[in-house]
């Protein structure tokens, strides 16, 4: 047993679950019932719970226990060396009134949308643990968007969460926000019905997110699961996420300062992700860098739902704001019904900062299997802004939406300043993988399968220089199209001809 796990073993007392203190914590837990909290789901408990947090903080740190029951609350500010323990059967229920999410005169922040259910800034050694839940009552903050329906032949491009938008009165988002914190642990709790982003960490160090579950409606607008911005030394493990927006998303920007921090040493391991947007994503805000990122041993899937409720891209790596990716490893990933398995995009939407490292390089994707895809995978840079040094090894991609040879003649726009999304180019001329403006590409043991009668090449290269292909296999192609179609490409070596 790991030391951390040993220290977090619990005992029942005072109607709740008490964690043994970690180093630096005092031994005496405080139950929020001592401070007048009422578990009837109707009484506003913000002051009582905050008083409990403040008392433990002033005593030098320790545990605040939320016992079984439903506790209605507004904004809570977590403080250094305080652990919020949610007992089995406990619920922190977010208020449906925006007035209950206002900071007091002595605290708060000047970042975008300063309304949250739980917030901490410039704190250290803080955690939220336990078998309880936090419910943000998200549907209370949304209304119909009035968006139009797509035609039958474009259903693959729809997004279920576009049916709703936040009400004009606003919504608390992110539901949980941590800024400039050190040694942060979020473990085992259940988060649901977030009104916006669910869990967001900004400029934090030594973050451990383990064993949590997030369940937001698939049509919930902007209901990201976990967002990690400007953080370093982060582990996300054994999490289950259902969201109406990106499930796990890494970003580089700084709403609390002029320069974005480098996103570095982030590992996402053994997670199950489901959404109608992107599964694991770097982007869209990418003003700075991403280095030493690992995403492994995870599942991205949807049930047999309409196309518009399925994952847009299982894996989306995007740099469009002048930042850079240098060192991403993706391995041992199973995808089912992700519309696009792999989407790698280097664009030019804006340049807030001029970074000499700008670009995408050193990306390795290994042991990935995707079934029932709809839109081909793509790796696309821009003229003079090529994606470099991408390796795909032991990849199985199955496309379940047939295309015809007429798509090969369709011009694909560059869209250099457009919002990056796997559906941004429309249906592509390849059935499996489309690559444009790339250098030093490696494809090893790549199998691309399609429905009978597919009329497009399995692979299309456009302005690809320096590619090495081995062990490439594809389904039979209708007509006279080759398995690999090349345009304006050179130094492409095929060590084994595509089948």
Overall description:
By secondary structure, the chain is mostly beta strands. The protein has a domain at about 165-365: 3 Solenoid (Pectate Lyase C-like), CATH 2.160.20.10. Helices cover about 5% and strands about 45% of the residues. The chain has helices spanning about 5, 45-60; strands at about 10-15, 15-20, 30, 40-45, 60-65, 70-75, 75, 80-85, 90-95, 120, 125-130, 135, 140-145, 165, 175-180, 180-185, 190, 200, 205-210, 215, 225-230, 230-235, 240-245, 250, 265-270, 270-275, 280-285, 290-300, 315-320, 325-335, 340-345, 360-375, 375-380, 385-400, 435-450, 460-475, 485, 490-495. It has a 34-stranded parallel β-sheet that branches. A hairpin with a 2-residue loop joins strand 1 and strand 2. The protein is elongated. The protein starts with a helix and ends in a 5-residue tail after the last strand.
Q: What labels would you give this structure?
A:
single chain; mainly beta; Pectate Lyase C-like; 34-stranded parallel sheet; 38 strands; 47% strand
In short:
With 499 residues, the protein is mainly beta. The chain is built from two helices and 38 strands. It is 4% helix and 47% strand.
* Overall body shape: elongated
Q: What percentage of the residues does DSSP assign to strands (E)? A: over 45%
| CATH class (first level) name of the domain at 165-365 | Mainly Beta
**Residues in helix, %:** under 10%
Total helical elements = 2
Radius of gyration: 24 Å
Layout of strands and helices, then pairs:
Blueprint: H1 3-7, E1 10-13, E2 16-19, E3 30-31, E4 40-44, H2 46-58, E5 62-66, E6 69-73, E7 76-77, E8 82-86, E9 90-94, E10 118-121, E11 124-130, E12 133-135, E13 142-144, E14 164-166, E15 176-179, E16 182-187, E17 190-192, E18 199-202, E19 205-210, E20 213-215, E21 226-229, E22 232-237, E23 240-243, E24 248-252, E25 263-269, E26 272-275, E27 278-286, E28 289-301, E29 313-319, E30 324-336, E31 340-346, E32 359-373, E33 377-380, E34 387-399, E35 433-449, E36 459-474, E37 484-487, E38 490-494
Parallel strand pairs: 3-5, 4-6, 5-8, 6-9, 7-10, 8-11, 9-12, 10-15, 11-16, 12-17, 15-18, 16-19, 17-20, 18-21, 19-22, 20-23, 21-24, 22-25, 23-26, 24-27, 25-28, 26-28, 27-29, 28-30, 29-31, 30-32, 31-33, 32-34, 33-35, 34-35, 35-36, 36-37, 36-38
Antiparallel strand pairs: 1-2, 13-14
């Amino acid at each position: 047993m790991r030391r951390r796990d040993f220290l977090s073993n619990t005992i029942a007392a005072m109607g709740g679950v008490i964690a043994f203190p970690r180093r630096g914590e005092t031994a005496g837990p405080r139950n929020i019932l001592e401070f007048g909290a009422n578990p009837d789901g109707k009484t506003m408990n913000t002051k009582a719970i905050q008083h409990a947090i403040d008392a433990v903080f002033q005593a030098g740190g320790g545990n605040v226990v939320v016992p079984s029951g439903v506790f209605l609350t507004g904004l809570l500010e977590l403080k250094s060396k305080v652990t919020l323990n949610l007992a089995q059967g406990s619920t922190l229920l977010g208020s449906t009134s925006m007035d209950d999410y206002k900071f007091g005169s002595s605290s708060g922040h000047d970042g975008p949308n300063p309304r949250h259910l739980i917030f901490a800034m410039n704190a250290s050694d803080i955690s939220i643990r336990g078998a309880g839940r936090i419910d943000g009552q998200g549907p209370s903050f949304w209304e119909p968007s009035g968006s139009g329906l797509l035609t039958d032949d474009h259903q693959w491009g729809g997004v279920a969460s576009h049916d709703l938008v936040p009400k004009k009165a606003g919504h608390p988002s992110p539901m949980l926000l941590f800024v400039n914190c050190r040694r942060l642990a979020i473990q085992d709790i259940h988060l649901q019905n977030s009104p916006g982003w669910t869990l967001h960490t900004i400029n934090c160090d030594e973050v451990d997110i383990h064993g949590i579950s997030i369940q937001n409606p698939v049509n919930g607008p902007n209901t990201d699961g976990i967002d990690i911005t400007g953080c370093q030394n982060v582990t996300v493990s054994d999490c289950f996420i259902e969201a109406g927006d990106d499930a796990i998303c890494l970003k580089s920007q700084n709403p609390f300062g002029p320069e974005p921090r480098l996103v570095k040493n982030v590992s996402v391991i053994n997670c199950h992700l489901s959404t109608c947007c992107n599964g694991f994503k770097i982007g869209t805000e990418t003003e700075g860098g991403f280095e030493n990122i690992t995403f492994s041993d995870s599942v991205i899937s949807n049930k047999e739902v309409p196309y518009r409720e399925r994952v847009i891209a299982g894996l989306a790596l995007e740099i469009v704001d002048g930042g850079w990716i240098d060192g991403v490893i993706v391995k041992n990933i199973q995808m089912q019904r992700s519309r696009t398995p792999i989407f790698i995009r280097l664009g030019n939407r804006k340049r807030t900062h001029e970074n000499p490292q700008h670009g995408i390089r050193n990306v390795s994707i290994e042991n990935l299997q995707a079934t029932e895809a709809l839109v081909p995978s793509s790796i696309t840079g821009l003229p003079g802004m090529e994606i470099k040094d991408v390796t795909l090894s032991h990849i199985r991609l199955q496309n379940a939406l047939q295309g015809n040879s007429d798509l090969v003649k369709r011009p694909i726009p560059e869209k250099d300043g457009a919002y990056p999304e796997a559906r941004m180019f429309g249906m592509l001329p390849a059935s499996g993988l489309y690559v444009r403006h790339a250098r030093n590409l490696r494809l090893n043991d790549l199998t691309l399968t399609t429905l009978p009668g597919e009329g497009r090449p399995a692979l299309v290269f456009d302005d690809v220089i320096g590619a090495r292909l081995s062990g490439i296999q594809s389904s039979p192609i209708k007509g006279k199209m080759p398995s690999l179609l090349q345009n304006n490409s050179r130094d492409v070596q095929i060590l084994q001809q595509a089948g």
